[in-house]
Amino acid sequence: MKTAIYPGSFDPVTLGHLDIIRRASIMFDRMIVAVLHNQNKRPLFTVEERMELLRRTTRDLPQVEVASFDGLLADYARVQGACAIVKGLRAVSDFEYEFQMALANRKLNPELDTVFLMTSAKYMYLSSSVVKDVAMHGGSVVGFIPDEIIPDIERRARKEG
Ligand code: COA
Known about the structure:
Blueprint: E1 3-8, H1 15-25, E2 30-36, H2 47-57, E3 64-69, H3 73-80, E4 84-89, H4 92-108, E5 113-118, H5 128-136, H6 150-160
Parallel strand pairs: 1-2, 1-4, 2-3, 4-5
The protein binds coenzyme A.
């Protein structure tokens, strides 16, 4: 069984993330979408809330599991028996950082490769920060995130704003 991990902060999940999840899920038998800690970020949603939003938006994909992990991604991949990390590349500017992480993860776990999917052109500009910024300023996030989680983001943005 080929297992892959799609890691990220997912604060919150966007249509760009879901595009990558859908396309990658047909390449592997098991896809773990892992909410991991990014030490450079202060999140809007708790890990549990982010996992719930992810579960709700991926429930039609039987290969997909949603999980979280607190340590190194390379160790988590080993524990899960994963052969690949999946990442989306949006622009050349993503490349340097992703290249560095891919090499570091392979050094930490030599059985692990990183597979990059090009983000669909229509989601090139998207990030979780853009979604939060638009919502915090009262703008519409239709077309940025799945419709079913729009009320969750708007409610949280009103509370924080
Ligand atoms: N569509 C929309 N947005 C996308 C996207 C896509 N296809 N691909 C990336 N993004 C955005 C995300 O929304 C996020 O936006 P934000 O900065 O506004 O939040 C950003 O690109 C990616 O950030 P994040 O989700 O935090 O992922 P990351 O690539 O910075 O990596 C971890 C984060 C959690 C995977 C990484 O820190 C990690 O592996 N942590 C565990 C500890 C570890 O092993 N560290 C050593 C790593 S070598």
